[in-house]
Amino acid sequence: MPSIQIKPVFQAKMRALCVRPYYGHIKGCPNFGKCERCPPQAPLLPDVFDLESPCYVIYSTFHLGEHVDKMQIKHPDWSLHQLTCCLYWQGTARKRLAIEINRFLADYPEYLVNTTPEAMGLNVTETLKSVSMELEWPPHMWAIQVAFAGLEK
Known about the structure:
- The chain has about 150 residues and is α+β, with helices and mostly antiparallel strands.
- It is about 30% helix and about 15% strand.
């Protein structure tokens, strides 16, 4: 099931995640303030989407644990950080998500889709939890790529 109807958990404070420090980025995401799809330029979810109409998350899963096992064989001297580095798997995961988005849009052509819903204030963790989907954070075995779909406001 690559898409599921949800009741979005909107919290504008989710955008603050973009400026939280993480490995190699003491100021948070380097796209913050530089891309239209990122805060503070990104619009808030309820400004773009009709949250009273049916809303969906479209997702794909990536077996990160399997990827790490393969990379460890290929690069036995790498650290765990190197083995899990998104540069080596995120492109594949995003490609899978794009396929799922296209499948969704074939059935729901009137919907808008956004691939950076956290930047618009969607609490992805709580939204998915409400439909019995638990995220690993940080991911160890499974990384889930998520997009938001809804009708335009």
